[in-house]
# Entry
Amino acid sequence: MFIWTIILIFIQSFINFTGLFYFLIILIELELFFMHEINTIIWDWNGTLLNDVDMCLESINTLLQNRNLDPLSRERYRDIFTFPVRNYYEIAGFDFSNESWDKVAHEFMDLYFENLYKAHVFHEASSVLEAFKQNNFRQFMVSAMEHESLINSVKEKGLYDCFEDISGIQDHYAGSKVDMAGRFVRDKDLDLNRTCLIGDSIHDFEVAEKLGICCLLVANGHQSYSRLRETGCQVVENLTETMNSFKINHVEINSQVKKKRDENR
# Structure
């Protein structure tokens, strides 16, 4: 009797495991199906298309060392970075009971813009944006970067013409972009069911949730892969993998972009 009980428990466990496995497969297929229905992409800038992590790390470490505080490693930075960024400053060691947040924020931004020339877009950014364009996706950008600075940055990096419109926040404090993104989506009258936000942070996922649109996170920016996975959102390792999520055949397009780039040299 005892042996049969063990066998039945084993069979039930196998069935439950198998059921769970197929349920997860169905969820993935559904996610891919809905991705196929997407025709509009809202891109984040910093850390998603612009590779500015090392430059941000250099700037924040300068501020920390000026206050005799321990600098951050790249791994530690990606593990504590968050929005609003004031929270991450406090985790890093800043004490805003001794100095004002405004002073520290402006000090960081002065360093950031002084060194912004060091930051380049990810090497595959141009070909990825071109691939989406060639596949008839509408492309916009929404960022927690101050609006005019954002416009100038995108133009300087040569990607401005890839987007129908671009929107940043109204100050340099890198707070939440939920309200601004909401207004942007309403003003553009975007179809929420066919729009996807692509970013590199948990906050991008939170923005997408608030807007009621799907989200794809890229783990090549300001937050680690493990942190992004905690959201339950689909996460890819790099920009090239974003195209796989939308089943874009990008090989020929990449070749065309490379040929055009070589001709312009």
The longest strand covers residues 138-146.
